Amino acid sequence: xxxxxxxxxxxxQIIKQAIDTLSLTSFxxxxxxxxxxxxxxxxxxxxVLRYGWRNLLMGSAxxxxxxxxxxxxxxxLNLDMAYxxxxxxxxxxAHATSDxxxxxxxxxxxxxxxxxxxxxxxxxxxxxxxxxxxxxAIAMIPMPFLIIVTRVLGKKMHTFHRxxxxxxxxxxxxxxxxxFGIRIIKVFNFEDSTGKRVExxxxxxxxKNLKRxxxxxxxxxxxxxFFNISTLVIIFYGGFLVMQKVLTPGxxxxxxxxxxxxxxxxxxxxxxxNLFQRGMASLKRINTLLDSLPQVCQPDNPKTPxxxxxxxxxxxxxxxxxxxxxxxxxxNLTVGPGNKIGIIGPPGSGxxxxxxxxxxxxxxxCGNIFIDGFNVDxxxxxxxxxxxxxxxxxxxxxxxxxxxxxxxxxxxxxNEMDTxxxxxxxxxxxxxxxxGLDTIVGERGITLSGGQKQRIALARTLIRKKPIIIxxxxxxxxxxxxxxxxxxxxxxxxxxxxxxxxxxxISALASCDRIYILKNGKLEHFxxxxxxxxxxxxxxxxxxxxxxxxxxxx
Length: 554
Fold this sequence. Notes:
4-stranded antiparallel beta sheet; elongated; single chain; 554 residues
């Protein structure tokens, strides 16, 4: 780029010599052809060099874009569940797409324009002052006004870009949410209302983006106006200097050429300001995300025991999502290694919250949880989660094949796969599919029923054979007959793991060593299936109702 700028500054001197040669009585055509040849060669050489620096510098900008996107995604993966409870997905998507693109443009084109402006603009002004200081000073009269305009409009551009990006985040989230819930929209005829909401958000983004565009559009004509005024001054005053023999015609033409070269850095100031203001606003938004630290993080001196005996103990554990309201209160619970326990309770009693504390998806508000005598807060976080297989309440599937959703990049022997498929009552279902295990499930498993998705999610959990297995409502979407088959086969699987099952179906819990009843965030009763039928009214009534439903379904 420096070479290109240097050659560009030499060309007006060649033109000056050519024009001054034309005014001589001893004009030689060979001299004119020689000057034209030099200009042609310089133009070709500049084109090659310009191609080179654009590839190198813009390639660097792409590397920066790639690096920021990778760092941002890794950081997002390390954030805890509490962060995702507060931040919209659309906002994160805007960070990962639009904001990073603006940073790339600022680092790529913006940095190029900055360096080019300083080098080319500074050298051009130096040559112009060396040619005729007074003429240059008069030509620069409009420049202070240019600086003031650029500063004022630049501040507005920064503000308008920030508000436009915030509006873009809201629009992205609304569109994502609409596509995610497209079936609900169609079933309830929400197309019109959803369309109006998106249209309103789109208009808001349009208006805020238009304000940014108005400032951008205003900047360039103002820069062009100041440049044209400078050109007028040079032609008017420079013409008098030529007539007075102070300047040669070639020097005046060269001076105008240098002014035209200076036009790019001057006009580029507005473009550069626009790019940098957008880039800085986007960088500030991304830095806000990067500065967000997870509450659940690696301990300072993590313990990494070679083998973890899967006994679990809760000691006076409290937990809350919001500081004012306790979700769990005074939980004391002990699960022996290799035991199977069940947890039941009314909806909203805190069952899912309880089991999410074990792999530290959230931190406890108060109290401690121990695994094999180690406080979970002190165990290496990666090791802790490698010890636990958790099947969440929502049976989420990735948009790949059934096989990919079950094995998740692991090498699983065929006989083990067959055993798990049989246990989850999936073997016959998959055999009836055209592509078997290689059947594409579609986005979020859209081609499968709720029960099929839940069974695949169960297989994904069981196939890992972790020391601790946690199943959150594993048969809620499965019919009574298939659910009973799965529970029966699961009991015969002879797993040595410690198993925790949350379920509203008592048939899934009946074989547990101990069953806990959770109400309003507190453990009220516990015992075996038979003991709770005798001692707890909620459990007894729930069992009676479910027995009636199962007999009716049969």
